Task: structure prediction
Amino acid sequence: MRKFELIAPCHFGMESVLKREIVDLGYDITESTDGRITFLGDEEAVCRANIFLRTAERILIKIGSFPAESFEELFQGTRALPWEEYIPADGKFWVTKAASVRSKLFSPSDIQSIMKKAMVERMKEAWG
Result:
């Protein structure tokens, strides 16, 4: 089974409780920052974490990361990620939330739009 880097966001102050819940499920924590815990797990871990983590807001799978100081870099970086491994050819998806921290790219709606276009381009290349 392949391993994923999973991110569990939580409310500030709940990090220590969430860490304990993740360790109790048997997963290794890789990073702990304000408002989120990162840990490693497989497909089963995604399911178990969604069911059993009471203090996590949701479970996110980290697809990749890259620096982007312009919208063109955001587009190219997003397009380079292997979206076809996660979204089937007939799959539907939405980019419903965007945030920027210490970034020149400050418009969430523009970030959402550019990421969606880049994902569609990647899916067109992969699925025809």
Observations:
- The mean pLDDT is 94.
- Strands lie at 4-9, 29-33, 36-41, 60-61.
